[in-house]
Write a structure and sequence with these properties.
Layout (H helix, E strand, L loop, with lengths): L1 H37 L10 H14 L1 H33 L1 H14 L8 H8 L3 H25 L3 H9 L4 H39 L4 H10 L3 H29 L9
Length: 265
């Protein structure tokens, strides 16, 4: 009976959460239409929600939006993969080697606030307009949440675990594989989820400013040609992609780390 009650509570909570999300979406649609009809903004710049959805459906049907989304996702995946490997490794290294962390801190604090968009001209001159340039910028933008999450996760490990590892005779590699990584994975997962949104935004921005194939290029082409409904349809697609990526990462976190405080509710 207790299990049935808990299951019913969870189902009711999920339905209530979905209902709140739907209500929020309807409020946003109503606000959009009120703003469009109020005359405060030129209606040509704010097409109706119906026109945007119609354009979105047509672009999906002809395959243009699907192809652009896949091109954006490809660069996103490559940039995220590089950022995950190097961010995790560097974060763990900095947490385990205090003198290295102190030495590198000024450099990291200098590099972290630099907007990745500001580096696009430098990347174009150094790497050209190819995929290497785009992946490098995505990596630079997304590595920081992963790096600092990994470092924080390692620093939060109870020192007694390392004492137990020494008693078991674990070497440095054994302690990293059997103590550090398992304990820090929830923090790394959260940092990766945050980095995923940053990487997607940067990928689309690079495509807009450089003409690289993807959603950003389609968005820029629609803007320059005055096709506002098509432009907003691409924006809508980007929002759906971002929401979908975030939901996938959340589900993975909840499945792998149900004990994490962020997922107890």
């Amino acid at each position: 009976m207790a299990d049935v009650g808990v299951s019913g509570f969870r189902r009711g909570w999920q339905i209530g959460k979905a209902g709140k999300g739907l209500t929020g979406a309807l409020v946003l649609v109503a606000f959009w239409e009120m703003l469009r009809l109020s005359g405060m903004v030129d209606p040509r710049d704010l097409p109706s929600v119906f026109a945007i959805l119609r354009s979105f459906t047509l672009q999906l049907a002809n395959g243009n939006l699907v192809l652009a989304a896949l091109q954006t996702l490809l660069s996103w995946v490559m940039g995220m993969a590089v950022a995950l490997v190097f961010g995790t490794a560097l974060g763990i290294l900095l947490a385990l080697v205090p003198w290295l962390e102190r030495t590198s801190r000024p450099t990291l604090e200098f590099l972290r606030p630099i907007p990745s968009v500001a580096l696009i001209p430098v990347a174009l001159m150094a790497l050209g307009i190819g995929v290497t340039m785009q992946v490098s910028l995505i990596t630079f933008a997304s590595i920081w949440p992963i790096l600092f999450a990994a470092r924080q996760g390692v620093e939060a490990i109870d020192p007694r675990y390392f004492d137990v590892g020494r008693v078991w005779g674990l070497g440095q590699a054994g302690r990293i594989l059997r103590i550090v990584l398992p304990a820090a994975l929830p923090s790394i997962a959260t940092g990766t989820r945050i980095a995923a949104s940053v990487a997607l935004a940067l990928s689309i921005t690079v495509e807009m400013l450089t003409g690289r194939p993807g959603l950003g290029a389609v968005l820029q082409a629609a803007r320059l040609s005055g096709q506002t409904a098509e432009m907003w349809a691409v924006v809508f697609c980007a929002g759906l992609m971002g929401q979908g990526i975030n939901m996938v990462f959340l589900r993975i976190e909840r499945a792998l780390f149900p004990w994490s405080g962020e997922h107890l509710v």
